[in-house]
Amino acid sequence: MTSTTEAAPPAKKKSLLDKAVALASGPHGLWLLAVVSFAEASFFPIPPDPVLAAVVLAKRERFWLATAICTAASVLGGLAGYAIGFGLYETIGKSVVEFYHLQDAMLSFQQRFAEWGGWIIVAKGLTPIPFKLVTIASGVAELNLLTFVVSCAITRGARFLLVAWLFYAFGPQARAIIARHKLAMLIGGVLVVAAGFAAFALL
Fold this sequence. Notes:
Blueprint: H1 16-25, H2 29-40, H3 49-58, H4 63-87, H5 89-99, H6 103-116, H7 119-125, H8 131-140, H9 145-169, H10 171-180, H11 182-201
Helix pairs in contact: 1-3, 2-4, 3-9, 4-5, 4-8, 4-9, 6-8, 7-9
């Protein structure tokens, strides 16, 4: 008798999005979010928004917890950036600024502190501008530390809450859109980061 057993179809290869969500849903997902959030505010160039989105997509019930961790870690990272600007600018901060060719932008940013104070952090923290440059500039300008912390908490909390809520409310739809337009999303992400650097340079 001839066997009618059919060969099992090959396993579908996981997309980058599926891998990111799988990592975010694992036991180290929130730790990864905290590390990226901290690093981005002090030296790392990539924003934590994609990791936050993946965490919320993986487990929607962690919406509030993920937002709180992302915000707290970003503020702590901001304090590290502030310390670099305040006491380590010549040894570390200056190298970061020169690496991105933002010497003139740094000077302009410091001058605006005299007029706007912490409000300049609130405004810039909601934009794609690299936040580490804001925190280092705050330290160089010796902005009041309490004002700095409160401003960072407000601006980062608002931004991350918006990102988390969008993926909490429209998670399935967002995941489907990302899956269909992976290349466009990747290019868009790169352009957002580039726009942030360009905007800071034009301050």
